[in-house]
Amino acid sequence: MHTQLQIFKEIIEPILILDKEGYIIFANPSFENLSGYSYSALSGKSIKILFPDTSGNNAHTSIFSAISNFTPIKLGKEQPLYLLKKDLEKIPVGISLSVIETENAKVLIALFSEKTEVITQEQLKRANSFYLSLIEHNEDHIFQLDKDLNIRYINHVAPGLKREEVLGTSLLPLLPDEATKIRVKNILQNSFKTGKPDSYEINFNSPNGIIRYDTTVTPVVKNGNVEAVNLISRDFTNEYKLKSKILEHQRFIENLDNYSLNGVYIYNIQKGINTYINKRYEEILGYSLQEINDMSPEEFFALFHPDDAQAISDHMKEVSNLKKGEFSELEYRFKAKNGNWVWCLSRDAGFDFDEEGNVISFIGTFIDLSRQKKIEESLKAKNKEIESFVYIASHDLKSPLNSVKQIFNHILGRYALDPTVEEFMGIALRSVDRLRELVSNLLDYSLIEKKYQLEQVDLQHLIQIVSTDLRSLLEENKAVLDYGALPKIPAYRVPIRQLIQNLISNGIKYHRENVTPKISISCSEKETHYLFKVRDNGIGIEEKDFQKIFVPFSRLENERNAHGNGLGLANCKKIIELHQGKIWVESTLQKGSTFYFTIRKFLSA
Ligand code: ADP
Predict the structure, then answer these.
(1) Ligand 1 center to residue 549 CA distance, Å?
(2) Which fold has domain 141-240?
(3) What is the pTM assigned to this prediction?
(4) Residue ranges lining ligand 1, Cβ < 6 Å
């Protein structure tokens, strides 16, 4: 009945609509005001509850005779007529009763005026036309069904139907399928039985496509019996489609959330509590939302590993300053309910923002990294083992090789040898030299992870030293080394020197025929790291080899690599990893290569 009430609100005069036995069909808000009763309290009741005192009062008697005879009448003008309000106060009123006929029903409209004010013909007309247009022009389908569910009245019909054909026939054949027919029949019959309002939704197959109707069922009660039901069907196809889309989306999110490999949480920074966690969160960490929220913030934050406390606190600061669309990641350890430390990788993004765009709560997803971490740990241990083996082997090979070299030199210097033997001895000696160089490079490689001191290294100064060391190589090749202002950075001096030396000497070594080698080094400062560039104008590297050259012992087929063992760039990679940075190359064949590497600004030992 909402739509009618909506329109009735526009009528300023208090109005009641009655059937021919004086039962109340409608009461407008103005009447609710006047009487103190709500419409729902009056609906289906006899008008007698408002005018109980009929004995010896002609005016009262006249109301009922007018109602039963369907005669228009004005009351309360000559003789006082009292309306009994809900709070039992009696107030004098005037009533103008008029008869309205719709196609199938005849109703009475009672227009009230307070203090026996005379109701004008004009007011009456206005009220009547409101009532009629209300029903006839209402966009909703307003109709009444009798006990056999036949349509007694309908204002207008759905597309594809004809009003005169459906009037007097059952509603049920108009419904789309058996299941709907049974469902609606039950609802309607139940409303007849209990006298209670109800509602249902159906699809109607119209020639223009499916229309979704939402129908409210209001019983018309007389003498305690439900005589008919009034139905109002509203087309809410658009809302329904939208609602279905929202529901589908909701289902998608629910499934994603329930079956995801990720734990999900929403944390309210201001309240210091989690407002949501998903199933996977509970699986990984063992806590329920209740258990987590029963903890104080101190207890909760104590579940993060003490070694990660600083990182967590920095991360929380970062997260509370995130803007829409930004996120922040962190790896940390969290103590699960069973006491185990779980390695987690979280990604957090702002979820609720206040008007100034500050994060109120953030949403985070995380994965359990424990398995990978275990594999990583065992790989690291294996690598350490291999490195110490390489270290021991190369270290122990050094002195026998030196002895062999000494013996060769001794023989070559002391004895007059057959020229063929001498030539073979010379070849053997050069091989021994190459072997010594390889052993020495291997030793460097295995030594990188051995403890060096982290210190402030002045790179400008360091390069000067390196270029002095490489003077003969630079001069032999007429190479030009140029570098701008370079910073002082926290680094491991010995390895960083080795790295720069390697990159410069590669730049010279892999120069182009008849092109003066030029190597330039520059640095730019970024937010979290320094970015270095070492550029040469040499033979260049094919894109397919960009990764390969950093693998130990990998060497490329080219005119310049007669000497070397493929450990130089592998060494550089290891050194850069020690500085928590990255190294990569960009290059064009026959033009030159640029080696990039980064070094973290805030390096900790
Ligand atoms: P090595 O120089 O001992 O072969 P590296 O590890 O230093 O070992 O380099 C691996 C390979 O990468 C080299 O064999 C070479 O083919 C290629 N390379 C390295 N630096 C350059 C460069 N600046 N220009 C062109 N190619 C290069």
Answers:
(1) 7
(2) Beta-Lactamase (3.30.450)
(3) 0.46
(4) 506-507, 510, 536, 538-539, 541, 549, 555-556, 558, 561, 564-570, 593
